[in-house]
Specification:
Blueprint (H helix, E strand, L loop, with lengths): L5 H9 L3 E3 L2 E3 L15 E8 L11 E10 L2 E4 L28 H25 L1
Antiparallel strand pairs: 1-2, 3-4, 4-5
């Protein structure tokens, strides 16, 4: 009978190559991840199409700006951000979170009342049986 262990299955996958939707799939024998040299990705920028846009309608065209192939990114043209600039905009400021916690004194009162309710519930349960 043929028994396939997890380790045998893993090694068989690492040694396999096949055609996928993004090209030939190869695996890195050390990490088990996809070999980046076999991956092709593209970064597409959608920008205003001045030829097709009018005062009532805005249409966009896609522009390939960067391509990842053979393990590295290659820039084809600058990426245009929504403000029309090619300069990367600054990150949003970090938000200040006000958790609005209950003060310690009120929390202690709440916990004491909770304990009293639990004790009374258990006491009345025992008393009525």
């Amino acid at each position: 009978s043929f028994v396939l262990s997890g380790d045998d299955h893993y090694k068989a996958i690492l040694n396999s190559t096949f055609e996928g939707s993004s090209g030939t799939i190869l695996f890195n024998a050390e990490t088990g991840t996809r070999n980046p040299k076999s991956a092709i990705f593209s970064l597409v920028n959608f920008v205003d199409d001045p030829d097709a846009s009018s005062s009532n309608v805005v249409q966009y065209m896609s522009q390939e700006t960067d391509v990842f192939e053979s393990g590295s990114w290659r820039s084809l043209r600058p990426f245009v951000f929504n403000n029309g600039n090619t300069i990367v905009p600054s990150d949003l400021p970090e938000t200040d979170v006000d958790r609005n916690y209950i003060p310690s004194g009120l929390r202690a009162v709440g916990l004491v009342l909770c304990g009293v309710i639990i004790a009374l519930s258990v006491g009345f349960t025992v008393w009525t049986k």
